[in-house]
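Propose amino acids for all 99 sites.
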């Protein structure tokens, strides 16, 4: 289900991780997470889940919860298809991305 969503691709010089960010367009933490990725030069993709139909949003959140066995809060980042980050706590992002 997640692969059928339309993501916005952001090009960066760092391509050492596959990063997908599920965010809300009005969320300050989401904006900080995206700014962090931009500042560090990562390529990534994102989607604002508050701008997709409610049913699709519900399905996406369920798919993430089922896959990662964790509650979904925003931002929710999937790193290299097997790791995830919930919320924006910069030291966690630094550690997970190997900075």
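Proposal:
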């Amino acid at each position: 289900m997640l692969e059928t969503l339309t993501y916005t691709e952001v090009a960066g010089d760092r391509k050492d991780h596959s990063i997908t960010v599920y965010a809300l367009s009005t969320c300050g933490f989401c904006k900080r997470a995206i700014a962090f990725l931009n500042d560090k030069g990562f390529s990534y993709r994102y989607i604002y889940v508050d701008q997709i139909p409610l049913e699709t949003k519900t399905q996406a959140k369920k798919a993430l919860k089922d896959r990662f066995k964790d509650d979904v809060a925003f931002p929710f980042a999937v790193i290299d298809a097997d790791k995830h980050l919930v919320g924006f706590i910069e030291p966690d992002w630094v550690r997970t991305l190997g900075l």
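The longest helix spans residues 54-68. The mean pLDDT is 96.
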